[in-house]
From TrEMBL:
<dbReference type="InterPro" id="IPR025309">
    <property type="entry name" value="KTSC_dom"/>
</dbReference>
<dbReference type="Pfam" id="PF13619">
    <property type="entry name" value="KTSC"/>
</dbReference>
<feature type="domain" description="KTSC">
    <location>
        <begin position="52"/>
        <end position="109"/>
    </location>
</feature>
<protein>
    <recommendedName>
        <fullName>KTSC domain-containing protein</fullName>
    </recommendedName>
</protein>
Amino acid sequence: MKTRAIKFAALAALNSLRREVRALLRKRRDARAATIITRAGRLAKMEPLAVKSTLIDAVYFSQEDGRLRVCLSNGEERQFEGVAESEVIAMVTSQSPGKYYIENVRGRFKRIAA
């Protein structure tokens, strides 16, 4: 009986720690994605866009230079350039943003180092 209680407490503590780590990683990612340096050496603001997807965790877009940063739920970040605003809006508002990203963004736009 005591073993079950100990296992439950350990799992609860582990889940709490996981949530805290994810929150810290999200804050770090948001701070990094908030500004980028353009080719001209200027700072450009990337706007966060709300997205509800199991594949995509967050999306940031800069209208100034057409850069798109996609943060995947596995922790990877992909950055693309030359993306039209209409394409980003279509991805974020589609029924399945992850599927739209795979089919219409990933192979179509030039990927740059994130």
